[in-house]
Amino acid sequence: MKIPITKPVFDDAEKKNIIKPLDSGWVVQGKFVAKFEKLFTLFTGARYAFAVTSCTTALHLALAALKIKPGDKVIVPSFTFVATVNAVEYTGAEPVFCDIDLKTFNIDMGQLETILMKDKGHKIKAVIPVHLFGLCAEMEKIVKIAGKYHLKIVEDAACALGSKIGNIHAGVFGDAGCFSFHPRKVITTGEGGMVITNNPALAQRLTSLRDHGASKTDLQRHTAKGGSLLPDYDLLGYNYRLTDLQGALGVCQMAKAKAIINKRRIRAGKYNQVLQEERNIITPWVPDNYTHTYQSYVCLFTNGESRERVINYTPDKINKLNKTRNRIMFALEDKGIAVRQGTHAVHTLGYYKNKYGLRSQDCFASYIADRLSIALPLYAEMTTKEFNWVVQVLKNALKKYAA
Ligand SMILES: Cc1ncc(COP(=O)(O)O)c(C=O)c1O
Question: What is the per-residue pLDDT for 230?
């Protein structure tokens, strides 16, 4: 039995809708993208939503619209997908790596404040909290800290469709929130992303920068009188527009989003139940009042130790555990079950390590998460038979390789 890490949910609705732009001949950003954006505002509660080609371009666009520029610095958690940090590099600003809390895999509040207190030249202009794997970062505290230090907030909500603190959806706490529709995410348009904001002036800059810096969108130009004349371009913009083919998919996916998230949460709950007495791995932790949507179901392999003990291990000891973690993942792979490390510690990746002279110990919790995390398969349509097989193979591998 082959079990993928995740699987998108498509049915006849997507097949029927994607034909419509082909039939009409309007395949670039148009009415389907507009409808997708509208549905997104209704789902998240944001005032404005702008579809773009990916979350990576969403992050770049948000930073550019907030006028982040060379000479500025932007705080990023070190345990995230590399795209979060690449978006900062694209602006010419410098990323400042902040460690994570190993319990949530999200940015560590203590470290965040320490970094800001040391920023005597006030070069740090923004922070990008990442809602990793579908669990919100501690946004109430981040908003307070950002207010104190005059920082802009761009939320990386790539993994966080449906994720909430109380009733507030990820992406609406900060100045802007960025989402991904890559197939590993809760809903997908192949590739795709969305930026949301409640700020009308920022919304104006986002829509213009997405479209080469144009003062009018393509659709506005084609539907209004005088469309034969090109509009003014008063900003240096980009082409980050989503196609209407993808917009047509997005509209159908939004109709399914709630159901997909519910099914994922039920499946994750079952993993929690059956893995709770497995002493060698720690299942995801969810603070009170937070809605985790489990874009990935990520455990920490600790070989029977607590997180608090593991954080004090030497790098050598972590590397030894890492070898065992890898053996366990390979055992699942051998049985046709796709697993992954959660994500990577970006400060250890060649480009960043070399450019900024960073060492593994600089963000040690991120390093541990990189070395010891295991993402298990999770998708809305996962059958009980598939689920039981994953659990059985995982338990056998833990028995064989862990202490
Ligand atoms: C935390 C995070 N940020 C950004 C991205 C980039 O998203 P995209 O692939 O849509 O550019 C991803 C994708 O995996 C991600 O996990």
Answer: 87
